[in-house]
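Blinded run. Sample ID left blank on purpose so nobody reads anything into the name before looking at the predicted structure. Input follows.
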Amino acid sequence: MLLITRKQPYFEQWQEQAQATQLEPVQKVAATLGNHLKGLLAYTTHRITNAISEGFNAKIQVIKSAARGFRTFENFRIAILFHCGKLNLYPL
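Blinded prediction complete.
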């Protein structure tokens, strides 16, 4: 499914002008934005990002590297739940 919004023609016009400048840094930015246009337009329409899942992934990678390997997947899973699950360890 191709996401087309009212903003897309403005971007395409800007991208053509940016490519015509023959300034390599401007062309590089225009190409990068063009490659990510679908996601950029989706964000401007829905205002939703994957920042929370990226944050969890970063935290999991830190847990994984700090342990330098787990003997079993279950131990790895427990460490993730312990650090990311905001577990309350105080007795009731």
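Unblinding after everyone has recorded impressions. The chain has five helices and no strands.
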